[in-house]
Specification:
Glucose Oxidase, domain 1, binds zinc ion, single chain, 2 domains, alpha/beta, eight-stranded mixed sheet, Aminopeptidase, 468 residues, 14 helices
């Protein structure tokens, strides 16, 4: 696929990434010194300044923070007390975008909180109660997003929401309840660990369970965050967008989710800078803000750049952009969202670079590719798996206090960056069109057929006529 000149470029890119420890240095500053980078916290602002300064240091005069408005959220303390059948206090944390509040009500345990489990009981059994459900995979084998479970709880008239982690380790999981580019949550939500949730259920046994909880969090309308953007112009007006979100949840370092993808994005920007004006397509590196509260930064970016979507050749999303996998299994994995031809493109790429890994196809609304997908832009996703994967399932340590630097392997991040540099080099220099854009009616039909429309409606994220 690559000509002689580009093969030389490829060797230089790989050598530069492997020879320096820039990824690791950036990770140490952003995770250990700066912190979570959660929307609305001082660490978010510090991270924005650090990233812009670094990108400028790499030679990007155009590096900048592009602001956007959203519904912000401030965490307050949460308390949980069982009042019946026995009195006992427990540890709990509030879930992002919870509007806060105090209440006492009967609890209805809805297992994993899947649509099937909600539909099996119906609104009359849920109304006025507090819904308890876990993050486990549903009995039908599907992983249902927390925002869907919360959406059902609200729709069925629940007054509160308790989300129990399914992974051990006394780790309460956080996560957002509503898309912050539109709104905050309607009913308070708190998270408890597997151990706490199980104890509550054992103490209640077959008897009716009643709890009292209070949450002092609040939604802060009219907040402002920013995406960090740096541009490497090409020889045409076509652009490749590559990036991932820099914000983590406020209770953790967010090292895996998603400092890993941020550090890889910044590394790609650094090593590709000498090639400005040399490739057919330009590359726009973006570290998105506020992904953790409803994919808000990328949604705002798309809403503000609608006129450029036709010229956006592809969106490459880097979530969990390069984590260690020490058991000899796959290192990286790709997901192709649209169009289907991109799968073949990646297969050919992986064959050419002799890197065997998995490629899946499917659709998900829970990361930064999503608003681009809805505008018809071809979109792919690259992620890697954490080193101690065998200990956890599903989201694993993501969204808990355990998402920290020790879960990330910097050599593996370098490997992820090398693979992505090789991918970008091909995408940027390919003579023929990369892939076709998908018309909106085709996307809508697909989402209806696969049941995603129903899910997005429950999450209050179904608005195909406008990006936000
Ligand atoms: Zn993430």
């Amino acid at each position: 696929m690559l000509n002689e000149r580009h093969l030389k470029t490829e060797r230089d890119l790989i050598g530069e990434i492997w020879q320096t420890s820039e990824i690791h240095k950036n990770m140490l500053v952003l995770a250990d010194e700066i912190g979570s980078r959660f929307a609305g916290t001082p660490s978010e602002k510090q991270a924005q300044e650090y990233m812009v300064d670094k990108l400028k240091e790499y030679g990007y005069e155009n590096a900048r923070a592009v602001p956007f408005k959203y519904y912000g959220w401030r965490r307050g303390p949460a308390t949980l007390e069982m009042t019946e059948p026995v009195k006992r206090g427990f540890e709990a944390i509030s879930l992002a975008m919870s509007p806060g509040g105090t209440m006492e009500a009967d609890v209805i345990n809805l297992g994993t909180g899947s649509p099937e489990e909600f539909e099996a009981v119906g609104p009359e059994d849920v109304k006025g109660k507090i819904v308890l459900c876990s993050s486990a995979t549903s009995p039908t084998g599907k992983r249902v997003h927390r925002r869907t479970k919360y959406g059902y709880a609200v729709k069925y008239g629940a007054v509160g929401f308790i989300f129990m982690n399914h992974n051990p380790g006394q780790l309460a999981a956080t996560g957002s309840l509503r898309p912050s580019y539109r709104m905050g949550g309607e009913i308070p939500g708190i998270g408890v660990s597997l151990e706490t949730g199980s104890l509550i259920q054992r103490l209640a046994g077959d008897r009716p369970l009643r709890v009292k909880f209070s949450d002092e969090s609040e939604v802060v309308p009219d907040s402002e965050s920013a995406n960090i953007v740096a541009e490497l112009p090409g020889r045409s007006d076509e652009w490749i967008v590559v990036g991932g979100h820099y914000d983590g949840h406020d209770i953790a370092q967010g090292a895996m989710d998603n400092l890993s993808g941020t550090a890889v994005t910044m590394e790609l920007a650094r090593v590709l800078k000498p090639y400005e004006g040399k490739f057919k397509r330009g590359i726009r590196f973006i570290c998105f803000g506020c992904e953790e509260i409803g994919v808000t930064g990328s949604t705002s970016y798309v809403a503000d750049h609608l006129d450029q979507m036709k010229k956006t050749a592809i969106m490459v999303n880097l979530e969990l952009g390069g984590l260690a996998y020490t058991d000899g299994m796959k290192h990286a994995a790709f997901t192709v969202y649209q169009p289907p031809e991109m799968k073949q493109w990646i297969e050919e790429f992986l064959k050419e670079v002799a890197y065997a890994t998995s490629i899946t196809t499917g659709m998900s609304a829970a990361s930064d590719h999503w608003p681009f997908v809805m505008q018809g832009v071809p979109a792919i996703y690259m992620h890697e798996e954490p080193s101690m994967r065998q200990f956890v399932q599903g989201r694993g340590w993501g969204h808990t206090t355990a998402d920290s630097m020790d879960k990330v392997d910097s050599r593996n991040l370098q490997e992820g960056a090398m693979l992505m540099a090789r991918l970008l080099l091909r995408l940027a220099t390919q003579r023929k069109k990369i892939a076709k854009h998908t018309p909106l009616n085709k996307i809508v039909r697909h989402l209806e057929r696969t049941g995603m429309r129903k899910t997005l409606e429950i999450q209050l994220k179904w608005h195909p006529e406008s990006p936000r």
